[in-house]
Design a protein that fits this description.
It is built from ten helices and twelve strands. With about 350 residues, the protein is an alpha/beta fold.
Length: about 350
Amino acid sequence: MNLEFTRKLAIPMEVKEMYPLTAAMARAFEERDVQLKNIMSGRDDRFLLIIGPCSADNIDSVLDYMTRLRAVQEKVADKLFIVPRCYTNKPRTTGKGYKGMLHQPDPEHKPDMFKGLIAIRELHMRVVQETGFTCADEMLYTENYKYLDDILGYVAVGARSVENQQHRLTSSGIEVPVGMKNPTSGDLSVMMNAITAAQSRHTFIYRGWEAHSQGNPYAHAILRGYVNKHGQTHPNYHFEDILLLHQLYEKQPELKNPAVVIDTNHSNSGKQYIEQIRIAKEIVHNRSLHPAVKTLVKGLMIESYIEDGCQPVGGGVYGQSITDPCLGWEKSEKLIYELAEMI
């Protein structure tokens, strides 16, 4: 193999022993897990809002954002349940570019995976400790989930990973809600197959062990738009798209807790971050038009940070994304209040 192995990384148990949860952190995780599962199952009619930076690139600005978000959550708690995005590893279509805090704790320095594993656990722990939030993160590498499985509140499987067998089987052994994005091609059958696999029991290899999963009844759909063969983006958040997804769920009555979270950015917005405002409001409005749509659409994903837009690595703007462009804080705060009024 044309690979250079530089060092063996600490296993999850060792990292957890180095950075253990406090009793208060564990209690916050358990309480929020119950609430989120109640929302996904329909036992709680609050609306889910997964919102935050495209990538968690800087501990100080991320915690600043989370603290602001906590104050807003208190004001809308009867309508919205907020799960912050704390995405610490990022897929790159060509393999180039910033791959997240897991790879580079400091975006301006070379990758260091051990420091990255420590940094992402510390970040998630600090968010829980300082705000009471448990966060969402993307499961880019299935074997890394165990480093965060005691503190991560929501898992997203990305559009490029959703067809991967290991992602599907690992999701079947995760206890928290897992969202399966539609693939970049837009083929909803791929997403539905992923949900079916994630809700089923399996025997498979995980981190060198023979593993047995019980199935995840909270695996669900995420619609994020798609790209056609000409490279043109197309949305799939419209009323008709939701009814189509509802029909697909009806054809598979064995699936538990039918649900969809709609990503307002990516191909749904054509990466025009400002469009997230209009898209979010349209989706919430559409929930009022049909009981099936209201029941199925459990929440939204919104990319948001302190400053509008994005910048290159080393750009020097505090709280501005170095990956996809995001809504700035002022627009985000206003949107959250407007959505709460519409629910």
